[in-house]
Amino acid sequence: MHQNQQKFAVLSGGVGGAKLVLGLAQILPARNLQVIANTGDDFDHLGLPVSPDIDTLIYTLAGLANPDTGWGRHDESWNFMAALSELGGADWFRLGDRDLAMHVRRRDLLAGGHSLSAATRELARGLGVQTAILPMSDAPVRTHIDTADGELGFQDYFVRLRAQPVAQAIRYRGADKANAATDALTALQRPGLTGIIISPSNPWLSIAPILAVTGIESALSDCPVPVTAVSPIVAGKAIKGPTAKLMQELGITAGVVGIAEYYKNIIDGLVIDTQDAEHRTTIERMGISVAMTDTIMNDLTDKTRLAEFVAGFTAELRAAS
Amino acid sequence: MHQNQQKFAVLSGGVGGAKLVLGLAQILPARNLQVIANTGDDFDHLGLPVSPDIDTLIYTLAGLANPDTGWGRHDESWNFMAALSELGGADWFRLGDRDLAMHVRRRDLLAGGHSLSAATRELARGLGVQTAILPMSDAPVRTHIDTADGELGFQDYFVRLRAQPVAQAIRYRGADKANAATDALTALQRPGLTGIIISPSNPWLSIAPILAVTGIESALSDCPVPVTAVSPIVAGKAIKGPTAKLMQELGITAGVVGIAEYYKNIIDGLVIDTQDAEHRTTIERMGISVAMTDTIMNDLTDKTRLAEFVAGFTAELRAAS
Question: How far apart are CA B144 and CA B151, in angstroms?
């Protein structure tokens, strides 16, 4: 099979991005797929380093993800949380009994001198995940939201306060001082790379922090292979409740044209949904190649089919260049 | 009921001591019972502050203790531990899902500026325990064992290495620099106190660390009320496997006479089991009053009965003084 020879680096956030990553993992040998994960949503909770997007990627690839919530593990138990709640501990961020082990073990590895990259490698290996999950940086980068109530950490704003405060701006705290992790940069500069794929995660919340760390955007500019993105938005509708509110308050036009605008200096190609066909010409006028398909991924067949489509489109762009 | 007017301060370690404390809690109003807990077995594990004896006391009084293990909670689940093990984390110290909340919450409270005394008060309150559980000190004291393989933390020696290394000495690290906690000292100096009871915990492992912190032993000497101890040993047999090995290697004669020798400068009275009647005279010759009864506590009736006996004996000593 031809695609087995292809090699991709993928920039990804959590849920939406992880779906495409899972599809790519079906069509590529593990060593040919490397995923650079957003760590902007990371935070310290109850003394534990929580990395939501890394964990969603690992759980998804390990077949342990909870499809209903988009976070945590399936077949989870909540006895820790119930007991913590009884003791007056913070219970707004739900940590399942099994999921908790991930954060405790990560703390342990970091305290033992592991970088976040090395710790993530250990955690993924422990759950049998062979695809490389690479944190964008080993230094802390924290997505914050400036709101009418002051600056808030992302989880604090999004989970604890349910995105109620009116948002004014997004900040990627620490990004200016954070270098891209060596493994992440190496993945982007890998010899024989077919292309770089930007997964269908929210550009402003999940991909922007990756692009903000020192070294990533220049690696994308310098790379000799095509960069393609997959739109996470279909007919302006794929963004859910609180995220839609956030986008609106920030004046972001969350449609495929807005995404194309946002990515136009970085990408060579954009995969959009057939429902957005009307925007094709507008996007192509920005100098972006467009490919159209059904981008909604409900089951593994959808994910695999979209992965094949994106891989094929990227390979075509490479052949044409 | 007369005993409701009595007030006691109790020095206690974990399992054995907690049994008598539970008995005392049956016969006294909560405000008349204050328990000074050994923290020499405390340790930092996976970044969490674990206080085994405090937790055993709280769980016992909350009706949550696991009677089979002597530690942790009954009706416990182990999903965290299984997941941690899968991730290559340390699994030699078993932390149940519900029990884990105790340590996470304690870390949270300590990180928030609470003393161990204040944190313990919060944790006990959270589980509905009204009896005051008072850590012997807010400063760290750590029981270490000098062994043929070097100096080891107590849990490391006892749990991880199953007391295999040959023991040479016990040290109470930090005790010389640790002051007794204010609440603990206040309990010993309480106006109207009937007496101070040393619970049937292992003298060398559980009571000695309490006595080693600055202020406790002088408070016992200075107090105008009787101090009575309850022997944890019956016919030389109540000490279990690894503890018996430890005692033997340290040259400690673990019988009621050895206990009387160890406590003789501190106590006024000693409660021994009727099976140890032959040693009564030897102990009385040390200037210690002896009371004999069945000291084995299998069920709540045994615990309550022994508590009544010890309380009565202590009150008699006070009346006679």
Answer: 7
Question: What's the token pair of residue A214?
Answer: 């020192």
- Whether the CB of A86 is below 8 Å from some CB of chain B: the reply is yes
User: Is-contact B18 B60, C-beta < 8 A?
Assistant: yes
**Touching check for B46 and chain A: CB below 8 Å?**
yes
**Which residues, 6+ apart, have CB-to-CB distance to A96 below 8 Å?**
A72, A73, A76, A77, A78, A80, A81, B79
Concatenating the DSSP letter of every residue in B17-77 gives HHHHHHHHHHHS-GGGEEEEEP-TT-EEETTEEE-HHHHHHHHHHHT-B-TTTSSSBSS--
Each residue of B196-244: pLDDT tens digit?
999 999 999 999 999 999 999 999 999 999 999 999 988 877 566 788 8
Residues of B in contact with A129 (CB under 8 A): none
Q: Are B132 and B149 in contact (CB under 8 A)?
A: no
Q: Show Cβ contacts of residue B246 under 8 Å, excluding neighbours closer than 6 positions.
A: B145, B163, B167, B205
Give chain B's mean pLDDT.
Answer: 95
Q: Residue A230 pLDDT > 80, yes or no? A: yes
Nearest to A87 among B46, B83, B101 (CB): B101
Confidence (pTM):
0.93
Q: In whole angstroms, what is the distance from residue A129 CA to residue A309 CA?
A: 24
Q: Is B250 on the interface with A (CB under 8 A)?
A: no
B217 and B28 Cβ atoms separated by less than 8 Å: no
**Strand segments (E) across B158-233:** 167-173, 195-198, 227-230
Which residue of B47, B77, B99 is in closest CB contact with A47?
B47
Q: For residue A164, give every residue at least 6 positions away whose Cβ sits within 8 Å of its Cβ, in sequence order, or none.
A: none
Tell me if residue B130 falls in helix, strand or coil. Answer: coil
Residue A102's contacts (CB-CB under 8 Å, 6 or more residues apart) are: A55, A58, A123, B83, B87
Cβ separation B105–A89 shorter than 8 A? yes
Tokens 């109470």 locate to B172
d(CA A3, nearest CA chain B) in Å: 32
Q: Name the E strands within chain B.
A: 8-12, 33-37, 43-45, 48-50, 132-135, 142-147, 150-153, 167-173, 195-198, 227-230, 269-273, 289-293
Q: Spell out the domains of chain A, with CATH numbers in brackets.
A: 2-320 (3.40.50.10680)
Chain A residues 122-151 with a CB less than 8 Å from chain B: 122-123, 126-127
In whole angstroms, how far apart are CA A85 and each of A4, A93, B68, B104, B105?
Answer: 49, 11, 26, 11, 9
A-chain CB neighbours of B98 within 8 Å are 79-80, 82-83
For residues A72 and A52, give the distance between their C-alpha atoms in angstroms, rounded to a whole number.
Answer: 8
- Whole-complex ipTM: 0.92
